[in-house]
Amino acid sequence: MLKKLSDQVIVITGASSGIGLVTARMAASQGAKVVAAARNEAALKELVNELKGKGHSAIYVKADVGREEDVNRIAETAIKEFGGFDTWVNNAGVSIYGHAMEVSNQDIQRMFETNFWGVVYGTKAAVNHFKNRTIPGALINVGSLFGDRGTVIQSTYAAAKFAVHGWTESIRMELEREKVPVSVTLIHPGRIDTPYNEHARSYLDQQPAHRGMIYPPEAVAEAILYAAENPKRDMYIGSQAKALQLLGALVPRLTDKLMEVIMYPTQHADRPSNPPEASALYHAGYGMHERGTNVGWIRSGSMYVKAAKHPILTSVAAAGAIAWWASARRRR
């Protein structure tokens, strides 16, 4: 049994913008004590002052999750200030837009330090803490729809997220066999309206951006905080994330062709790309922005997340719909 969120201390990496920022604000509003971590110290200070000004408990740790010593310091600070933590969210990440053969090995290695090694370091820090205290806790790793299915243009990012998915599934089985008191959840976001694209390293002539159906960061935060209280294996944000995973598994060659057609025109806006030095690959990006500059239909939420939070009601509704359909067919 996991604690109620109002009784929890929650660690969130990448908390200075986007999904991490929204999750920190939402967690605090529901009574959790927040440990916010990121590279942008000015943004973290502003966030913590904002939360404290509303009567919430929060601290920050300036940290680069690609450095193991920084990640360990996040855990040590949470233990020192709050006596421990109950949920650890590995959310920090950065992308690269460009063809795999054109992206430099140095850039790929740096991205893996953040996107993969940051998850590894965070996992070990969290699991060691949960082992030592023997009270159940939650480990939540933020993956991607591109961790379930490869893509073009963000091919190197997809590779890093595939690694995160494989790590999460494998560590879950090992911890279960060892009977370690930890719930391990993998979050599968679809396209989310955050500054993710503005922070990305771009090899494109045009600015990276999402086009098409886009989900709000609040939907991801909702899924993360649900998993903090309720053991869940996977949480998909948006039907597009689940549909792509299923399509890729059932008809991989058709999915290849669809991705080749759809993904090239839907990953950039009609304006010049930001220069390489503006990206957050090697240094902190701008903070305190929840949303990005994407182009498309931005949904108000995710019905798929709502359904995952109420599986029994969803199953009953689905069974009712099937029964109605069958009855209608018989009448015809």
From TrEMBL:
GO molecular function ontology, one term from the record: oxidoreductase activity
GO cellular component, one term: membrane
Entry keyword annotation includes Oxidoreductase: yes
Classification via SUPFAM superfamilies: NAD(P)-binding Rossmann-fold domains (SSF51735)
Pfam families xrefs: adh_short
Keywords of this entry: Oxidoreductase
Domain of life, source organism: Bacteria
UniProt KW Oxidoreductase keyword: yes
Record-stated family: Belongs to the short-chain dehydrogenases/reductases (SDR) family.
Protein name: Short-chain dehydrogenase/reductase SDR
